[in-house]
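Students often ask why inverse folding is considered easier than folding. One informal answer: many sequences map to the same fold, so there is more than one right answer. In these notes we will look at a single instance of the problem. The structure comes first.
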């Protein structure tokens, strides 16, 4: 939405799940070591990439933006770096107080599913006032079994670990591409 402005007319809703919009502590720690993977450099607080991405209007165009995140996300921390100005920013715990949801768990979580569905089926972003609190009693999104959730999360985290173990880090943030300058 930021850099390819012509796509804005083709998109009604942008829904982000736990996006590290303003940097995350784990990336900051890695950057301090001086040897991180390129994407981790870009997720650090104050990185050139995030600075360019968030310059000016954080939700440009007439696209309804929704940010669904968790205050118990073990990766995107601190969670208060997620919200974007101009977006419907909804923590799962805003609609289901005390519900623990980890980063990968957002993909199969019933309340997350409900918020995403709300954003996609109504004008504007997700609205917690329309949220059915009975969804808080459901563990998983429709059609997801406990076995699906376990297998999906195991694959997600093992692929991430494999990707990091197979690629050397770099000593600086990669230069911004021309479209982001």
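Output (designed amino acids):
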């Amino acid at each position: 939405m930021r850099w390819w402005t012509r796509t804005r007319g083709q998109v009604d809703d942008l829904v982000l799940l736990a996006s590290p919009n303003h940097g995350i502590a784990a990336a900051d720690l890695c950057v301090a070591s001086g040897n991180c993977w390129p994407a981790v450099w870009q997720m650090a607080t104050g990185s050139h990439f995030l600075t360019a991405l968030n310059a000016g209007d954080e939700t440009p165009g007439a696209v309804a933006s929704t940010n669904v995140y968790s205050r118990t996300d073990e990766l995107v921390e601190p969670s208060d770096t997620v919200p974007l100005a101009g977006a419907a920013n909804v923590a799962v715990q805003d609609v289901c107080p005390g519900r623990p949801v980890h980063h990968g768990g957002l993909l199969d979580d019933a309340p997350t599913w409900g918020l995403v569905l709300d954003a996609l089926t109504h004008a504007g972003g997700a609205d917690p006032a329309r949220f059915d609190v009975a969804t808080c009693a459901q563990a998983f999104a429709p059609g997801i079994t406990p076995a699906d959730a376990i297998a999906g999360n195991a694959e997600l985290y093992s692929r991430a670990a494999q990707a990091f173990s197979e690629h050397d880090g770099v000593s600086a943030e990669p230069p911004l591409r021309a479209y982001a300058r």
